Automatic annotation (TrEMBL):
This is Sulfate anion transporter. It is found in: Membrane. One of its GO terms (cellular component) is membrane. Residues 572-689 form the STAS domain.
Length: 698
């Protein structure tokens, strides 16, 4: 084929009878040429193409006419074969791929990634299986099998709907503790009565909590409230996580010292009660063999983890599943030496079937505990999402892709809703530690999570009988290892806040910690969330304003608190720039803030101090930064303008955009002040003011 066709042949090539547009063409990623077969189509970049500009431009213009017809709706909505246009079918599929990410990555999955995903999945599963058993039995006070189902089912759903490629979704220590506290509180609410079947009650409580958690997360995502992660401060989360770590450690030291039976007799309630219980009985009534096994297992776990950190460059050391190793070895030793006969509590027989395998979560048994568990469900939803979004953002930044907090909420919510159909399933959210390990070991897609969930399911049905002789104190040791991870970041954050003199953050972190320890987890986080939200509201309710002054020798005005050269050169004139949109929250204090600027400027002052400035005769507003004004703000601004007008203060508004101007018209502000009060810029306002002064003096 001739590489340099004539203009006529070029136009014929560029205008075939039926062009099959590709997705790239319609979305702007390529030209129409890229969709043509290799039939001699050329572009202006084609070497030796001298006169192709006209043909290229003609073809593109003709193509644009067709597209305009479709956009205008002048043509038929169906193509010649009776099907919707290709661009519409592509657009629909693109939305499906957006909202269900697995429809994008599964069809295009490259098996070159499978080795890394498979290795990461196996390693995370070897850590997750004993962890889930520990969380369910030791923290949530449920059957170990519920922890395993919680580590499998929500993870599969998240893998299909989530936007993070490395996030591992499974039960978390803090959240399992909250479920356990709710279970314990309801079971022992009345000391004079005892449930006929405590196990069934525990399963019902956990099920209804998980369902509510899933529903709350799903609705938060559906209504696009994923910005919650930027509303609640990191200091609050750090104080909560640290307090929960201390609570968990105190809880787990009891079985590690072999004091479980004595605890059932004395029944210490609060965390402080349990701490005093440990101090009084740890060295007098502890079971020696249980204590040796517990702290021996913990020492081995810490030693292996330290070696892994010290020898990261040796992959065969870094990838050692220390938790799995300790579980297997301790189970074998327990069986060999008959530790159960010496008074060491073991896991024992774990029935797989928790009643009917799949049940609708909203039934008579679970609805009985709906109201009593809603506060716990809300707390778990908030804390679980914050932890998950931190882990997701860390991995997204590390591997160079973006995530959607709203779709994360939907995926996490859907996972928990589906999980709640299996009785007793615990709430499941993302883990920072497991997700980081997932990425370190080569996990590049959610295939790693699918591998993990598959292995956990296999372990649920085939591995549990082999863990019959697993000492329960070893499970407590595993949880204590997790506690060390939770506590590890506290010194760094506390030092950072101290260095930054962030006293409010330090106070919030300390308050969360103390309230959680002294009262309970719910009180601690609830009070801190309320305080955090009040601080956000307080900051957002103070409109950002500054006084402008003229740069000498120019017609430019700059903030006087930021530019030493800026001067207020006209006596009695106050020029104020409002630096954000106006709404009901920040406009409520507009009158007070303006009055303070008028009397005190930017100087620090006490309301009882004498004014530092004279009352303004003219007030000029610079509103270039105001894009929107809601109805409440417009109403308050009208009252403000009316007040100044009654005082005899001249009022000018400059740099007003069309949207706010329309709001001012509807609110009657334009009628109140007159069109002459609305000027293009500050220079025009100052010229008008100076002219009126001259006229008055003349």
């Amino acid at each position: 084929m001739d590489p340099q066709p004539s203009r006529r042949s070029t136009n014929d090539t560029l205008r075939p009878a039926h062009i099959s547009y590709s997705t790239q063409t319609l979305s702007g990623y390529g030209s129409a040429m890229s969709s043509l077969p290799g039939s001699g189509a050329v572009t202006p970049r084609t070497p030796g193409y001298a006169d192709g500009e006209v043909g290229e431009r003609t073809a593109l213009l003709e193509g644009r006419e067709d597209i305009r017809e479709v956009e205008a709706g002048s043509g038929s909505s169906l193509s010649s074969d009776g099907r919707p246009p290709l661009w519409r079918r592509k657009s629909t599929w693109a939305k499906v791929r957006y909202y269900i990410p697995s429809t994008a990555w599964i069809p295009e999955y490259s098996f070159s990634l499978f080795a890394g995903d498979f290795l990461a999945g196996i390693t995370v599963a070897s850590m997750l299986i004993p962890q889930s058993v520990s969380y369910a039995s030791s923290l949530a006070k449920l059957s170990p099998v519920t922890g395993l189902f919680s580590a499998a089912i929500p993870g599969i759903v998240y893998a299909l709907l989530g936007t993070s490629r490395q996030l591992n979704v499974a039960p978390e220590a803090a959240l399992s503790l909250l479920v356990g506290q709710a279970v314990d509180e309801i079971l022992h609410a009345d000391p004079h009565t005892h449930p006929v079947d405590p196990n069934a009650v525990s399963l019902a409580i956990s099920t209804i909590i998980t369902f509510q958690v899933g529903l709350i997360s799903f609705l938060l995502g559906l209504f696009r409230l994923g910005f919650l992660d930027v509303v609640l401060s990191r200091a609050l989360l750090r104080g909560f996580v640290t307090a929960v770590a201390v609570v968990i450690m105190i809880e787990q030291l009891i079985p590690m010292f072999g004091l479980t039976q004595l605890e059932h007799v004395l029944q210490p309630k609060s965390t402080l009660d349990k701490l005093f219980f440990l101090i009084e009985n740890a060295f007098t009534h502890a079971h020696k063999l249980t204590t040796i096994i517990s702290f021996g297992a913990l020492s081995i776990l810490v030693a292996i983890r330290s070696c892994k950190q010290a020898f990261k460059k040796y992959w065969f050391i870094y990838r050692l599943p220390e938790v799995f190793i300790v579980v297997v070895v301790s189970t074998m030793l327990s069986d060999e030496f008959g530790w159960d006969q010496d008074g060491v509590e073991i896991l024992g027989s774990v029935p797989i079937n928790t009643g009917t395998f799949v049940q609708f979560p909203l039934r008579k048994m679970t609805l009985r505990y709906l109201r009593r568990t809603t506060s716990t469900a809300v707390l778990i939803s908030v804390v679980g999402f914050l932890d998950s979004i931190v882990a997701a953002k860390q991995n997204a930044g590390r591997f160079g892709y973006s995530i959607s907090p709203n779709r994360e909420l939907v995926a996490l919510g859907a996972g928990n809703i589906v999980g709640s159909f299996i009785p007793g399933t615990l709430p499941a959210y993302g883990s920072i530690t497991r997700s980081k390990l997932n990425g370190d070991l080569g996990g590049r897609t959610q295939m790693a999570s699918l591998v993990t969930s598959t292995l956990v399911l296999l372990a649920t049905f085939f591995l549990l009988p082999w863990l019959y002789y697993l000492p329960k104190c070893v499970l407590a040791s595993i949880i204590c290892l997790i506690v060390f991870s939770l506590l590890s970041e506290f010194p760094h954050d506390a030092k950072f806040y101290w260095k930054m003199r962030a006293w409010i953050d330090l106070l919030l972190m300390s308050l969360t910690f103390l309230l959680t320890i002294i009262w309970n987890v719910e009180i601690g986080i609830a009070v801190s969330v309320v305080i955090s939200l009040l601080l956000v509201v307080r900051r957002s309710s103070r409109p950002r304003m500054t006084i402008l002054g003229r740069i000498p020798g120019t017609d430019r005005w700059k903030p006087i608190d930021e530019n030493p050269d800026a001067e207020e050169d006209t006596s009695g004139v106050l020029i104020v720039r409002i630096r954000e949109n106006l709404d009901f929250a920040n406009t409520a204090q507009l009158k007070e803030r303006l009055r303070r600027l008028e009397l005190y400027g930017h100087d620090k002052h006490h309301p009882a101090d004498e004014p530092h400035r004279r009352d303004a005769n003219v007030l000029v507003f610079h509103l270039a930064d105001v894009d929107t004004i809601d109805a409440s703000a417009a109403q308050i601004f009208y009252e403000l303008a009316e007040t100044y007008k009654n005082r005899g203060v001249g009022l000018y508004i400059t740099h007003l955009k069309p949207g706010p101007h329309e709001s001012f018209e509807k609110a009657g502000i334009v009628t109140l002040l007159g069109e002459d009060a609305f000027l293009k810029d500050v220079a025009s306002a100052m010229a008008c003011i100076e002219q009126k002064v001259r006229e008055r003096e003349g």
